[in-house]
Specification:
259 residues; six-stranded mixed β-sheet; 25% helix; single chain
């Protein structure tokens, strides 16, 4: 059965990830399309010929601020169209969204703001979420089959975080953020991971680096997603999270979709 394999991965600095074996991992052919967030680099400052030599076309949308944010897509399938950003200038200046068309599939790779650095950025996060919600639902009217992957910086439910009670006032698990996820999914989206792992606990994609024991003891959060429009839900063959891949404080999340 022909399928499309997609990975979403916050690499927390592509150059740092490469030093930790990222290219060797790419050589294992983990997916047809790999969507990266938080690249923290511009294309010319990365040895991207090592990536293209493996058969990937690479597309980069970097932040204006050096060493900050940024998204990229490495794909073995050449896209019909690439769009850099959304037209929301504050978001585009930070290199947060890149979009690619593959036939009737529209792929959006997004790095959602985190809000961890204080009230101002938390306010920006809420503004960004509201703007993005309207944007993707507008896009959906023109291109109804969408895959929206990325670091959402939100753990949706208590099952998605190791200590829900202790983190009830933590950015990334605030009631308003979780309510946004409810609203977003209710507007016609499917959480691809949960279609195959409905009630599984301890499945996380990010662990704080403040204490080395956190990842060792799997005290994590699931904040990375590959969500699809409901009309694609029936084509989901596999979904997974790969915590043993360790080039970052995040790990890759995976979706295999029937073509």
């Amino acid at each position: 059965m022909a399928s499309l394999r997609i990975i979403s991965y916050n690499v927390n600095g592509i150059r740092a990830a490469i030093k930790k074996g990222f290219i060797d991992w790419l050589k294992t052919n983990p997916a047809d399309i790999i969507c990266l967030q938080e690249t923290k680099a511009v294309k010319d400052n990365v040895a991207h010929d090592e990536i293209t030599s493996l058969g990937y076309h690479d597309y980069w949308f970097s932040a204006q601020k050096l060493g900050y944010s940024g998204v990229a897509v490495f794909t073995k399938i050449k896209p019909d169209k690439v769009q850099y950003g959304t037209g929301h200038q504050v978001s585009d200046d930070e290199g947060r969204v890149i979009q690619l068309d593959f036939g009737d599939l529209h792929l959006i790779n997004a790095y959602f703001p985190s809000g961890t650095s204080g009230e101002e950025r938390q306010g920006f996060k809420y503004e960004w979420l509201d703007e993005f919600y309207l944007y993707v639902n507008k896009i959906k009217k023109k291109t109804p089959q969408i895959i929206l992957c990325g670091d959402y910086n939100i753990a949706h439910r208590e099952i998605d975080i190791h200590d829900p009670k202790g983190n009830k006032n933590s950015t990334g698990f605030l009631p308003a953020e979780r309510a946004w996820m409810d609203k977003f999914l209710d507007s016609g989206w499917t959480d691809s991971f949960r279609t195959k792992h409905l009630n599984e606990v301890g499945r996380y994609s990010w662990w704080t680096q403040r204490f080395p024991s956190v990842r060792l003891n799997n005290k994590g959060w699931r904040i990375d997603y590959i969500n699809v429009t409901n009309n694609l839900a029936g084509r989901i063959l596999k979904s997974d999270i790969f915590p043993d891949v360790k080039h970052s404080d995040h790990c890759p999340v995976y979706l295999e979709l029937k073509k």
